[in-house]
Design a protein that fits this description.
By secondary structure, the protein is mostly helical. It has 10 helices and no strands. The longest helix is centred in the N-terminal third of the chain and has 24 residues, at 54-77. It starts with 10 loop residues before the first helix and ends in an 8-residue tail after the last helix.
Length: 210
Amino acid sequence: MATKTVPKASARQRLLDAADELFYSEGIQTVGIDRVIEHAGVAKASLYNTFRSKEGLVCAYLDLRSTRIQERITRTLARCRTPRERLLGIFDAQGEAFAEPSYQGCAFMRATAEAPDDGSVRQVAEGHRAWLRGLFTELATEAGYADPEALARQLHCLYDGAAHSARMDRDLSAAATARAAAAVLLGAAPLAGTTESEGLLTGRPAEPMA
């Protein structure tokens, strides 16, 4: 019987895989470029021909992380029926990440703590955060909340806080705790055409006025 040959990953993919493993587990400053190259099993020229610099590789690594997070959230939200359920579903997707044995906190928070404020690494991180904030805002708008942008900022703070707690406290329930807080927040936030006090009196968003 013929043996099936598995195609070897490209040099780019091997470099990304090595960067993803090493940068995330140990930090982007701690891990030198030679170590990434050795771990990937490629020539040094492959890195510079593909990513031009270590900073370029770090940005590609963060782009990869962002894509995976977006895919996880998209899969989770596909199971939700309403915009409000999807808002809470973002925290469910976050909880799946926390449950992974390799979880070491938010890759973007960690990377920006080690990178210059005016560099491309921060730009990539800000782009990811803008995507997430935009998703919160979009769903809050679809759900009919009166101030979707303010609500999105509040939900994003809960999301960030859960990530810190999961990392610093090793609290695997942090996403569930943040989700419960988000549900309370959504219950108190007014819908378009109502006042905040109306939502607070009922314990849920008041119905829009005719």
